[in-house]
User: Which sequence fits this backbone?
């Protein structure tokens, strides 16, 4: 029997292809692996996290345009250097191929290594994976902390009683067996997540931002979401307010973290208890006098009639600076199809409420789905224009991702709109559009979003809702009249730039929709596209240059501790 401290466990996040999700501002930490690592370490296990997505984040933050390739074989080789007994790989649809190849290469190096997959993609396709992929030994569905620990304990001592491990899918006697998932975990009983990723990042760049998780689950069942097929019982559960702020305070003092990207799917839900918890978190932050900022996710239907009883102002006072809301569409028909439980009018009111409380707005939006009509598209861009969110290309190019087991996947299959039956290896776009003209426009629009556009969008959004508001807040609290004037002058430029981008992108989309509805001429579209990209680049470059000058003027010179202003 191997001692716990000698039993090595590698937790892996594979690198995948470039996706438009690169617009995420929240960095490359993986808290799911962090929670599993800390749970295992608390019981004495030797655990290493290998996050192969960190390099992309570092290169972006350093402003380096460098293409590099980490093949699955190279990733497997690096994993094996740790000499692990058990390897856990977190998968998504776009990293599953790499995950399977890593498993294959590891087994070829040493067939005794046990390989476990987790994450949403593996959770909903667990039986297919184990039936067809001999290089994978186990899948854990849903929450992994408790089940991973129990599996490690059994493998280490050589016992095989897998039927008692909740959510585990495994092979036994030549058959694939699937254990039922258990009840949700009591989150406050989990140790705080390991911060290996954060420490690696801080060795290269002195960032002052980190991810944090304060709740899990969702009370809703959007048709495009994978969760309802995995968690039939809709439930939301959370860390206590004290536990949340304990972690914030620890990260603030230990790593000098000043901004927290709270990555809960729903920081607030439409219950009295949830809203009280959010209020208590604000109180706890202010009671401890933590000088921090944070970003949260919530749904628009949290605030019925677009009112919040002062909650957003209270959270702003405690440091909330950005709110991300999944509006998804400006078409009433599409909102019903997605089962969003909201209306266009409520979405408009909530967008206004957020901005009235001086919060930066991020949005989730699905511009195209297989059933979209031209009427839907026009309503979508009208909505985006009215909330000033067409300044980002990302917001009006997104095609629907269709996940295995989701309600919308089953519907599209019944309607005959799938190119092939979705299985565990399927990409997210295996569908046809009901109106082929919409499909041609959707493909042409998504092709616009290359690495250069991703970079520009990310920097634009960062300046607009994150960096400049923080800089402005700092300057306005000073007595430097000259700097205050410069900040006010740049603020005028920022607002005008966002307005102009909103206008030119809206006009471009109107013309593109008209073109597609009549006779889609790719040459005409390309000419339109090139013209608008030229205008976008000019406005972007001008804003970035002026912001860079403003930063230089507001630096204190205290570069050693990473302070910008």
Assistant:
């Amino acid at each position: 029997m191997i001692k716990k401290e000698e039993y090595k466990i590698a937790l892996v996040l594979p690198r995948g292809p470039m996706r438009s999700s690169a617009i995420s501002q929240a960095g490359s930490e993986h808290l799911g692996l962090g929670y599993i690592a800390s749970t295992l370490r608390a019981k004495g296990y030797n655990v290493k996290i290998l996050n192969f997505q960190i390099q992309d984040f570092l290169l972006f933050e350093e402003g380096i345009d460098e293409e590099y390739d980490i093949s699955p074989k190279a990733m497997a080789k690096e994993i094996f250097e740790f000499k692990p007994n058990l390897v856990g790989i977190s998968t998504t649809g776009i990293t599953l191929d790499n995950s399977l190849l890593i498993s294959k290469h590891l087994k070829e190096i040493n067939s005794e290594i046990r390989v476990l997959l987790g994450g949403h993609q593996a959770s909903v396709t667990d039986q297919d994976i184990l039936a067809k992929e001999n290089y994978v030994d186990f899948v854990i569905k849903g929450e992994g902390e408790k089940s991973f620990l129990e599996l490690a304990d059994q493998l280490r001592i050589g016992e095989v009683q897998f039927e008692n491990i909740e959510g585990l899918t495994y092979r036994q006697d030549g058959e694939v067996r699937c254990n039922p998932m258990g009840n949700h975990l009591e989150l406050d009983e989990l140790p705080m997540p390991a911060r290996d990723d954060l420490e690696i990042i801080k060795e290269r760049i002195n960032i002052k931002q980190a991810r944090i998780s304060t709740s899990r689950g969702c009370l809703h069942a959007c048709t495009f979401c994978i969760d309802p097929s995995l968690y039939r019982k809709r439930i939301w559960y959370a860390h206590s307010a004290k536990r949340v702020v304990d972690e914030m305070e620890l990260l603030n003092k230990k790593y000098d973290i000043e901004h927290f990207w709270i990555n809960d799917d729903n920081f607030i839900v439409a219950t009295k208890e949830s809203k009280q918890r959010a209020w208590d978190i604000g109180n706890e932050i202010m009671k401890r006098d933590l000088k921090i900022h944070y970003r949260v996710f919530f749904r628009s239907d949290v605030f019925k009639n677009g009112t919040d009883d002062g909650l957003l102002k209270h959270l702003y006072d405690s440091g909330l600076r950005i709110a991300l809301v999944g509006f998804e569409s400006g078409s009433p028909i599409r909102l019903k199809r997605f089962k969003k439980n909201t209306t266009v009018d409520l979405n408009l009111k909530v967008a206004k409420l957020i901005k009235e409380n001086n919060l930066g707005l991020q949005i989730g939006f699905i511009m195209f789905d297989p059933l979209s009509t031209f009427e839907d598209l026009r309503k979508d861009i009208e909505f985006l224009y009215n909330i000033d969110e067409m300044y980002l290309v990302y917001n009006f190019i997104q095609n629907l991702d269709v996940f295995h087991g989701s309600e919308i996947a089953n519907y599209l299959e019944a309607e005959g709109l799938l190119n092939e039956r979705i299985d565990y290896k399927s990409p997210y776009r295996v569908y046809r559009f009901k109106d082929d003209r919409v499909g041609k426009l959707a493909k042409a629009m998504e092709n616009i979003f290359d690495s250069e556009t991703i970079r520009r969008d990310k920097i634009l959004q960062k300046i607009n809702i994150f960096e400049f508001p923080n800089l402005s807040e700092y300057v306005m609290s000073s007595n430097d009249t000259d700097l205050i004037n410069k900040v006010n002058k740049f603020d005028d430029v920022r607002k005008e730039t966002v307005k102009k981008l909103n206008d030119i992108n809206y006009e471009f989309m109107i013309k593109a929709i008209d073109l597609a509805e009549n006779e889609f001429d790719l040459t005409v579209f390309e000419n339109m596209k090139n013209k608008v990209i030229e205008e976008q680049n000019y406005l972007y470059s001008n804003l970035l240059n002026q912001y860079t000058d403003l930063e230089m003027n507001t630096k204190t010179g205290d570069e050693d501790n990473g302070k910008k202003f």
Summary: The chain is about 45% helix and 15% strand.
